[in-house]
Amino acid sequence: MPVRAVRLPMMLAAVFAFAPALAAPPAEPNYDGLTPEQARAKLNREQAIKAQEQLASNAANKRAYEEATVEREQIIRRTNEMWEAEKVAYDSAMAQWQEIAAACRAGDRSRCHPGSQ
C-alpha cells in the first residue's frame, strides 16, 4: 500500500480530532441577568413544582383507577347475582317441564300440554 494512501486518512483523522478545539468557543448561556447559581436555583424550583404536579396527577389517576376497579367489581357481582337467579328459575322450570313431560309420556294425559297429545 502506498505511503500516500496511509497518510491521507491519518491527516484527515487528525484534522477532525482537533476541529472542535479550533472551533469558536461556546456561547455563554443566557441566564436572564441571573448568576449561574441563581439560574440553577430557579430551574430547581421549577423542576420541583413540575415534580409535585406530576405526583398530584399520578395520585389522581390512581384514585380514578381504584374507583373504576371498585365499580367494575360491583357490576360483575350484580351481573353474577342476576345470572344465578335466572339459572335457579331456569333449573326450576326445566325440572317442572321434565316432570310433566315424563308423566305425559307415561300416559297421564291430564298433565300433557294441550296440543301435544
Describe the structure.
With 117 residues, the protein is an all-alpha fold. The protein is built from 2 helices and no strands. The termini are far apart. The model has no long low-confidence stretch (mean pLDDT 85).
Structural category: mainly alpha
Give the SSE string. HH
- The portion of residues assigned to helices is over 70%
Number of helices: 2
Cα separation of the termini: 110 Å
- Mean pLDDT, as a whole number? 85
What does the main sheet amount to?
none
Strand content bin: under 5%
Low-confidence parts lasting 5 or more residues at pLDDT below 50?
Answer: none
Tell me the total number of β-strands.
Answer: 0
Q: What would you call the quaternary organization?
A: single chain
Question: Over all CA atoms, what is the radius of gyration?
Answer: 42 Å
Molecular shape: elongated
Give the tags.
117 residues, mainly alpha, 77% helix
Give a nutshell description of this structure:
The protein is mainly alpha-helical.
Write the layout of secondary structure elements.
Layout: H1 3-22, H2 36-105
